[in-house]
Every structure is written in C-alpha cells, then in structure tokens.
C-alpha cells in the first residue's frame, strides 16, 4: 500500500480517496461537490506543466487545480 | 400564505430557464456554472395573487463556500419559512450530486418542491428515474420537467402550494451522501451503453493534446465565422440599405436646405466633396447611425451568435481547464476566461462576470485586464473597418500589442498585489444542444440590450461633439494636450478630441479619427491607444461598482500610465 496524490496517478485509473489534506474549507467545498473520503473517482486527464487534473466522481466531471489535486491523497496497491 | 418563491439549485441546472418559464422575464442562461451573477426577480400569478419569484445563484450546499453561494443562502433567510416556498431545481442527468442540497433544504425545514429538470436529456443519456418512488422517499412533491420545452412547468406551479415545512434532524454531509447512495439505488436505473460520439468529444476536449487541437480549431473557426457573418451583413444588408436608400434621401433633404448653418451642421455634418460621407460627415443623421448600425451592429450580431452558441453547448468551461495554466501566471485561474470572453462582446458584462471569481485580488486583476486589454465588439468592428483596408498586418498588430500587454500586466500585478488567488475547482458540464429558438431568444435579448444602451449615448455624444466643434470649444482641449498627443504619440493634435470622446463611447471615438486623414501607422497607434486608455463611461460605472472607489482609482492610474508608455513606445518604434 502506498499513499500518493491524485496528481501522481495515470489517466483512466480508478481510485478511492483516502483523505483530503487541504484544510477544512477546501474539504467542505469538495465534500459538497461529491468528492470526499472513501469516494471512488476516476482520473480522466491531466494538463501538463502543473495544469489542472480532471476527474469523474459519480456522474460529475470536475476540474481541480494542480494545487487542489495534490491535496487529495489516495491509496494504491 | 406564500409571499415569495425562491429557485435554488446547484450551478448550471437550468434555474434561469425555469425562472423565465415561470415569470416570463427573460434572463441570460448558458451552459456553464455561474451564469447568474445578478439576482433576477419576476412575478408568478398563484391563485389570483402575484407572488415574487427570485432566481438565486447556484449553490452546492447551504454552507456557503463562495460569495455567490453566500448571497443565495442569506436571501433564503430573509423571510420566515412559513411565508416562502422553495423550488429546488435538479439536473436529472446528475441527480446524485444535486440531492445533497435537497436533503439539507428538507432537514432545515424549508417548504420544498423538487423540480427534476432536463428529463429529456436524462432519457437520452440512459438515466431512468422513478419519480413516484423519489417523491415517496423524500416526502416532498417531485415534478419531472423540461424547462426548455416548458414540459412540467404548469404542474410545477400547481403543486407549489403543497410545499410544507417539515424539519428533520440535521445530519453531516458524510451521512447525507450515504443517504443519497441509498436513495439513488432505489430510484435511478442506469442503462448500460457504449460511449456515444458526444461523450468521446467531451473527454477529448479536456485532454492535453486533443484538447489543445480542438481549442485551436474552435477559436480560429469562431473568429473566421464572426468575420464572415459580420462582413456578410455589412456587404449585403446594411451598406446597400445605407447607400442605396438612406443616402439619396438625405442628399435630397440637404439640397432643400438653403442656409447650411448650425442645424445643418448638427444633423448632416460636413459635406465631403459636396456629398454626404457616412464615415466623415459626423452628423446626427449621418455618421451616428452609420457607425452604430452600419459598422458595429453587424459584428455585434455575429459575435453574440457565436458566443451564445459556444456558451449553450458548454464548451467554455473546457477552455477554462486548458487555459488554467497560463492564467495562473497572471494571478487568475482558468475560470477567468468566462469574464474575459464576455468582455470581448462588451466590457460591462465582462467586468460584472468577474463576480464568479472568489477573491478581491482576482477580481481586480481580471477587471483591470479586461478594461485595458480586451477590446469590445464595437471597438473591434471600428478597428476592422478603419485599419482593415491597410491589410491584416495592422489589425493583427493591435491584437498583438493588446495580448502582450495583458500578459505583461498580469504578471506584474500577480507579483506585486497582495492577497491570495483561491483554488480552482470547476464542474465541467456535459455538452448540450439546446433548441435553436433558445439561441435566437438570447441573441435577440443581447442585441436589444446593445441597441438600447448604445444608441442614445451615440446620438447624444455626436450631438454634444458637434456643438463643441461648431463653437470651436475643442481648441482648448487640443492645445492643452498637444504636447502629449503630438509630442509623445506622434498624432495630429486634433486626435485629442477622439481620445477624449473615447471616454463616452469607443466606436464613436474611432469614428472621430476617420476625418483626420491619418497614415496607416498613425491610425494603428490611435486605435491601439483608444483600446487601452480609459474605459467608456458605462464600463467606468461598473468598475466603480465592482472594485469600489479605491480600486477604481488604482485601476485608472494603471490605465493612464500604460497608455502613455505604450503610445510613446509605439510612436518611437514604428513612426521613426
């Protein structure tokens, strides 16, 4: 088991969110949009050079700024 | 008794379309989150009584995390719960995410009616919902609707009175998501299907390589189409009308005019080689209508046609994702493309749309960039009209100067201003293809807005200028500013009048440059300066409103400084 952030995984990977480390404001904002601890999300793409990460959570597609994606920690085998 | 009805829902679920259907009040709706930056109000007749309906900005929950959400939540608390009804609008294609707000509204005891919007689209996407079951589980009225076609709206108005306050225990968001999971399992059935072409395109537009290619093609295509339609209207409709019908009429009128005094000067203007010249005569009946209707309006129509199309399809948020990188360097984030693009139509809605940005710092940077480096359609139309005949090189040059300015200015502002730029989190809507009549409605609404705002200012402006010119009152202005205009910018000192008029309206100001007989290079400098110097009076007012007095002064000083630097630089690099 290895803890990494959303930035580091490959597109098309489906992962489960372990924690969000950005402070309560970011956490509650993401929570209200359906991105929370234990939620399964699929990474869709990553715009290079510290660009945003696009994920699918349920039926929503969300673009997260690079700094946001770095704060979303996931677990991988 | 219901005194007020609130429309609430997640961003981009079609609240404004439902609002228009309920009240008949036309408001702009687009396919991206945050279209509604002003609170729209209208009236609905309910049991023979007029009830106010309020269209709230989109919000994901009742715990606000942004300015717009705060506004929505605080408005909701204005009246006691017994006196209001809340219509919670849900995007049926993405019910899960929407239900969080619904549960919260019910728990807090708001009298709720749920309107499941975009039902037809859900069907197309293989999402099937059991509405009766949903109503059973939520214990509030649930109506399936499609606001675009008006389906379900009548039923919605009939069932508003069934909304009653039934508070429940308040639970956490985590618990709510668990609850929602259970509800979804019982009421939603997803048809398993292969990726459609639409979905493939949706994905491709946010991937780095395919996304950039698509963005390039779309922006280039949009630009070409705007020019094609704009020129088409000018060459085939407005110019023939003005030259073949309106001009002979005016010539006759002016021939009857015995003594060509003050009134002749005011209405017709100067005769060029004994004839009326729409571009140079500068009269209320000649140049004023020609600038607005013959040169600017065609481009307003074509620009808003394309912008509205891109908005409704839902392409703009994707562009925001691709440009996030670049805009970060300027202290903004991707979503700032929306105000900037709107600013290309008219700076006023552009600056107003900066409200979608969260921090004061971002709003200052975005508003300043828009008022300095983003030319509005009327200004662009005039630049094309004037510089076009000297070749694309000059027109392109103006854009290049403006673009470089935006980048340099953005970098400097980003490095020097204190404050923070918040994180970028944006929901990307699916592509949607709303019926054409929606597009026409929006286009009509925007063009009407343009004419109502522009025409009186232009007519009064030209009238005012003519009076000043007739009594030679501009001589003072021109001689005071001659050292700057002539010495630094290399323009004839009469150009001071045009630059001053730029404060009133940019299109008229460029029009004022027409009779001066400038060279291509001088015209290039003049047009560029008009684009970056003071915003017109309308943008000035919104700037003041959005930035406050201090922000306005700061922004204005930046503008004056930059105009002088750029004008001087251009003068000494290309005229010498």
Please explain how this structure is put together.
The complex is a heterodimer of chains A (77) and B (576). Chain A is an alpha+beta fold and 77 residues long. Chain A has a single domain (2-76), classed as SH3 type barrels. Chain A is built from two helices and six strands. Chain A has helices spanning 24-32, 66-70; strands at 2-5, 14-20, 40-46, 53-57, 60-64, 72-76. The N and C termini of chain A lie close together (5 Å). The mean pLDDT of chain A is 87. Chain B has 576 residues and is α/β, with parallel strands linked by helices. Chain B folds into two domains: 4-190, 3-Layer(aba) Sandwich (Rossmann fold); 210-259 and 276-575, no CATH class. Chain B has helices at 15-23, 67-76, 95-107, 119-124, 131-138, 153-159, 173-187, 197-204, 208-256, 262-267, 287-313, 316-329, 337-345, 347-353, 360-373, 377-387, 392-416, 436-470, 474-488, 495-501, 506-513, 520-532, 537-575; strands spanning 4-9, 40-46, 49-55, 84-91, 112-117, 127-129, 142-144, 188-190, 425-428. In chain B, strand 4 (84-91), helix 3 (95-107) and strand 5 (112-117) form a beta-alpha-beta unit. In chain B, helix 11 crosses helix 16, helix 11 packs antiparallel against helix 18 and helix 15 crosses helix 23. Classes of the chains: A alpha+beta (77), B alpha/beta (576). At the A-B interface, helix 1, strand 3 and strand 5 of A face helix 3, helix 7, helix 12 and strand 9 of B.
Quick overview of this protein structure:
The complex is a heterodimer of chains A (77) and B (576). Chain A is an alpha+beta fold. Chain A has helices at 24-32, 66-70; strands at 2-5, 14-20, 40-46, 53-57, 60-64, 72-76.
């Amino acid at each position: 088991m290895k803890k990494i952030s959303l930035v580091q995984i490959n597109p098309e990977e489906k992962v489960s969110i372990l924690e969000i480390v950005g402070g309560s404001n970011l956490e509650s904002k993401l929570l209200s949009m359906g991105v929370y601890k234990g939620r399964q999300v699929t990474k869709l793409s990553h715009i290079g050079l510290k660009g945003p990460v696009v994920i699918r959570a349920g039926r929503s597609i969300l673009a997260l700024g690079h700094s946001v994606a770095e704060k979303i920690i996931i677990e991988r085998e | 008794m219901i005194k007020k009805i609130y429309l609430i829902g997640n961003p981009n679920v079609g609240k404004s379309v439902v609002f228009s259907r309920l009240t008949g009040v036309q408001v702009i709706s687009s396919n991206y989150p945050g279209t509604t930056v002003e609170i729209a109000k209208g009236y609905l007749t309910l049991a023979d009584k007029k009830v106010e309906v309020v269209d709230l900005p989109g919000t994901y929950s009742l715990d606000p995390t942004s300015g717009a959400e705060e506004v929505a939540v605080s408005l909701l608390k204005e009246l006691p719960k017994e006196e209001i009804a809340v219509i919670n609008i849900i995007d049926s294609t993405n019910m899960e995410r929407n239900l969080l707000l619904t549960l919260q509204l019910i728990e807090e005891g708001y009298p709720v009616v749920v309107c499941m919007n975009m039902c037809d689209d859900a069907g197309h996407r293989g999402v099937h919902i059991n509405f009766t079951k949903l109503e059973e589980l939520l214990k509030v009225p649930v109506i399936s609707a499609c606001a675009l076609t008006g389906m379900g709206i009548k039923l919605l108005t009939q069932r508003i009175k069934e909304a009653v306050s039934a508070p429940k225990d308040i639970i956490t968001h985590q618990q709510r998501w668990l609850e929602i999971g259970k509800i979804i399992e019982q009421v939603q059935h997803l048809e398993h299907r292969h990726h459609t072409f639409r979905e493939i395109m949706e994905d491709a537009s946010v991937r780095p390589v395919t996304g950039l290619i698509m963005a390039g093609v779309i922006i280039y295509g949009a630009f070409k189409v705007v020019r094609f339609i704009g020129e088409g209207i000018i060459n085939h409709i407005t110019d023939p009308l003005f030259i073949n019908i309106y001009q002979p009429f005016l010539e006759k009128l002016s021939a009857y005019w015995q003594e060509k005094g003050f009134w002749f000067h005011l209405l017709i203007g100067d005769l060029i080689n004994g004839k009326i010249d729409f571009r140079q005569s500068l009269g209320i009946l000649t140049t004023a209508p020609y600038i607005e209707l013959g040169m600017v309006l065609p481009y307003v129509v074509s620009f808003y046609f394309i912008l509205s199309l891109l908005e409704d399809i839902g392409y703009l948020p994707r562009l925001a994702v691709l440009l996030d990188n670049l805009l970060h360097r300027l202290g903004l984030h991707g979503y700032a493309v929306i105000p900037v693009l709107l600013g290309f139509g008219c700076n006023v809605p552009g600056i107003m749309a900066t409200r979608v940005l969260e921090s004061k710092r971002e709003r200052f940077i975005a508003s300043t960039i828009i008022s300095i480096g983003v030319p509005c359609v009327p200004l662009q139309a005039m630049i094309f009209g004037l510089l076009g005949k000297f070749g694309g090189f000059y027109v392109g040059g103006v854009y290049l100067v403006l673009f470089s300015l935006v980048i340099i200015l953005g970098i400097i502002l980003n490095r020097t201003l204190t404050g923070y730029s918040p994180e970028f989190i944006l929901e990307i809507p699916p592509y949607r293809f709303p019926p054409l009549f929606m597009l026409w409605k929006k286009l009509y609404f925007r063009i009407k807005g343009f004419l109502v705002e522009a025409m009186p200012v232009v007519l009064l402006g030209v009238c005012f200028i003519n009076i000043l010119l007739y009594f030679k009152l501009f001589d003072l202005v021109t001689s005071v500013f001659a050292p700057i205009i002539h010495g630094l910018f290399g323009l004839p000192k009469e150009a001071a009048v045009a630059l001053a008029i730029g404060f009133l309206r940019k299109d008229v100001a460029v029009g004022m440059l027409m009779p001066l007989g400038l060279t291509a290079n001088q015209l290039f400098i003049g047009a560029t300066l008009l684009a970056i110097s003071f915003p017109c009076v309308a943008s000035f007012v919104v700037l003041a409103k959005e930035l406050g007095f201090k922000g306005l002064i700061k922004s204005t000083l930046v503008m004056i400084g930059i105009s002088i630097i750029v004008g001087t630089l251009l003068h000494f690099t290309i005229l010498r």
